[in-house]
Amino acid sequence: MKNIQIKAAQFFDLLKLKNVSMWEIFAQMIDGEEKKIIFLTEDEKVLFDYHLPKTIQELNKDKEKFTAEYASKLEQAEQRSKNN
Hints:
alpha+beta; globular
């Protein structure tokens, strides 16, 4: 497995600037070899990592799962906000 290190803040700023989703970038990186994308802080500390799958189909499954989890977390945050 190949490791790829990315500075998280710069990566997400670039996505906003180019108006492109991280999933589009990830899809372009798929070449049949599994990769571990390591997102770093500005001080080179590991923020989180993502195992890029070998196929677009697997990437789409990850995207669906991420979207559902993100929506759930947003809903929970909104509920906590209403209760305070």
